[in-house]
Amino acid sequence: MPDDVRRWSAELARDPSSLVFLPLAEALRRQGQSAMAQKVALRGLQRHPHNAEAHDLLARILADLGDLQGAFDEWDMVRRLSPTHSGALKGMAFIRFQQGHLGEAEQLLVQAQPHDEDGTVASAIDTVRQSGALGPGMVMIDPFSQPQHLYADLLSTEQAAMCLDKAGLVLAGAYYGADGQDVAQEIGAALSGVSDEAARATRHLDIGAWRSIVFETEAAVVALMPAPASAASDGGLVVVAAVPNTPLGLLRRVAERCTARTAEWLGRMAG
Amino acid sequence: MSTQFTAVLDALTRQRGVRASMVVDAADGIAIDWNLQFGQDGDRVAALAGSLYRKACQSALAAGLGSTGFMQLEADAGTLCLLGGETLVLVVVAERDANVGLIRMEMRRAAQAFA
């Protein structure tokens, strides 16, 4: 992949009007270099302002960066250029879902369904309908009824939370990617190893057991806390992520609330 | 012997509750310069802090979250603050009740000075 990035960068330098900016920006996005990917996509769009795929790419980059409204606007542009673009419709639906506008999210998904190539729209519609069982625009579900919704009422639309077991497998919560898919398992597996390293560091530094880890990344701020003790969660983690620039103190408070909710849930399961 | 980092590390260690500050090679966790209180093993702190920061960076990249900036680990009896660049990691070990907001600000200032 680094070879591809170099090759595409060189090609773009030779011919700034080349469409190679599309795979280049996509590769940078996948590597987590969202800011650089955004620059490449914006430069490409200056030369190709009517390219629907370029707007779609920029929308996904903006969603990665937490700019949900910017992403929505870009997908709206894609829809004007290519009215049956299912990726744009799904992206817009995802953002409306995150914002709690379930009726609008469902409408967009229904529009996307005839053009759905990967068969994911039907399950997304089910998710939206289940979430909106009490009325349009409201996500009022019993958080204890479904593990993936355990933290739903504790989080804003720009936050995600999940509980992982010792093996990095998801016990509860969800983490939705820019395309509306729940990627909690992937994110959880990648982050779970940090706690082992933290335990080793605190043990050798003689500063007691670790209580929380907070770190800033390009795409999110992340808080990790040890999961409350129980047979299911022993050695596990509560992970909370939020858009960049979220105050770290606020993030930690949210993580504490999610940890308390986890303890309550585990207690109900045990009892 | 003073290095280009000495003044910055001195300033960090003057913050209330700070027990140690150091500059660590991001690649191998080797200490480059430090300001420690009596009784602390700089090489050990550097190796552990560097390893923790590298793990966080790798995990964040694997999760598609991009590069890592400031990191704070809070433990029962202390706090570890880390701020990394491409080649260096700035490490502060502090008391648990230290003012992390001030330490973070001072670390950012120090990182700018290094850059």
Folded structure, characterized:
The complex is a heterodimer of chains A (271) and B (115). In chain A, 53% of the residues lie in helices and 11% in strands. Chain A contains eleven helices and five strands. In chain A, a hairpin with a 5-residue loop joins β1 (159-164) and β2. Chain A has a five-stranded antiparallel sheet with strand order 2-1-5-4-3, sandwiched between helices. Chain B is α+β, with helices and mostly antiparallel strands and 115 residues long. Chain B has one domain: Beta-Lactamase (2-Layer Sandwich), CATH 3.30.450.30. Helix content of chain B is 38%, strand content 31%. In chain B, α1 (6-13) runs antiparallel to α3 (100-114). Chain B is globular and about 35 Å long. The A-B interface holds A 30-35, 64, 186-187, 190-191, 193-194, 197-198, 200-202, 204-220, 222, 241, 248 and B 44-45, 48-49, 51-52, 55-56, 59-80, 93, 96.
Shape of chain B: globular
Termini Cα gap of chain B: 22 Å
SSE series of chain B: HEEHEEEH
Return the structural class of chain A: alpha+beta
Give the spatial strand order of the biggest sheet of chain A: 2-1-5-4-3
Strand content of chain B: 25-35%
N-C termini distance of chain A: 50 Å
Number of helices of chain B: 3
Number of domains of chain A: 2
- The average pLDDT score of chain B comes to 89
Average pLDDT for all residues of chain A? 84
The low-pLDDT segments of chain B are none
Report the C-alpha radius of gyration of chain B, rounded: 13 Å
- Our estimate of the beta-strand percent of chain A is 5-15%
